[in-house]
Design goal:
The chain is of the alpha+beta class. It contains five helices and ten strands. The chain folds into two domains: 163 residues, Immunoglobulins (Immunoglobulin-like, Sandwich), CATH 2.60.40; 61 residues, Orthogonal Bundle (Type 1 dockerin domain). The protein is globular and about 60 Å long.
């Protein structure tokens, strides 16, 4: 994403982000919240930095969905998980809205920052998930070019730069948004209720990497306490009109 500072397209969230990194010169790029570079690096330079971070493994996953609340306001949900064989950690969840080809000048107006939501810190153990939700109301520029709207969410190590800045994972969602799902819905009827609990309990103790388990909610081919925790955390979810 591109963040503007010291020009008419500057927003408070962008200024806060620039202050976080102690930005002094333009252009400055930060790859995966870790690799900080001042000045134009050229295509090959940027590609090298990108590939460095792409090669670093992660145990964090993020899935995004969005639903209309009213008019131009949409609720964005980020389901953040740690894989079953991962490590417990505390993460700061960020969500921002971008608009591609904005502002309409120069040859570098790609995915400009429009707004950022308040952050939230979450702590997860292996196999656990948590949903973070934020609402975005789109301005005139964005509403007139809905096909150029993008939401980005990322999980970052909390604290100050540079010692606590690594991004563990990020996800992008373009317009039109993916509809949300109930994380504990095992029977596919759009809600999490007693029927799903019954499926999970009937499958309790299943451990079948070859065929999978009917009550497995975190994709580790088992039905156990971690799946029960996901279902209970999602209890009452109902996407049916």
């Amino acid at each position: 994403m591109q963040i503007h500072v010291s020009d008419p397209y500057t927003y408070p969230w962008g200024n806060a982000r620039a202050n976080y990194y102690g930005l002094q010169y333009i252009p400055t790029t930060v790859h995966d919240c870790v690799l900080f570079r001042v000045g134009n690096q050229g295509y090959s330079g940027y590609l090298n930095l990108y590939n460095q971070r792409r090669a670093v493994p992660t145990d964090v996953t993020i899935e995004l969905s969005g639903e209309q609340v009213s008019g131009r306001t949409y609720r964005v949900s980020a389901e953040v998980c740690i894989e079953p064989d991962g490590e417990a950690k505390t993460m700061r969840i960020y969500m921002v809205q971008l608009l591609d080809y904005w502002p309409a000048y120069g040859g570098y107006h790609r995915n400009g920052l429009k707004q950022g939501a308040t952050t939230e810190d979450i702590t997860l153990s292996p196999g656990e998930c948590q949903v973070v939700q934020r609402e975005f109301t789109f301005d005139d520029d964005s509403w007139a070019a809905q096909e150029d709207i993008t939401i980005i969410a990322w999980a970052q190590k909390p604290g100050g730069y540079p010692s606590n800045s690594e991004a563990y994972q990020a996800a992008m969602m373009d317009w039109p948004f993916t509809e949300p799902e109930c994380a504990g819905d095992l029977d596919g009827d759009g809600d999490t209720d007693q029927v799903d609990l019954g499926i999970l309990l009937a499958d309790w103790g299943c451990d079948d990497p070859a065929n999978g388990c009917a009550g497995d909610l975190n994709d580790d081919d088992k039905t156990n306490q971690q799946d029960l925790g996901i279902l209970l955390a999602d209890w009452g979810c109902d996407l049916n009109p």
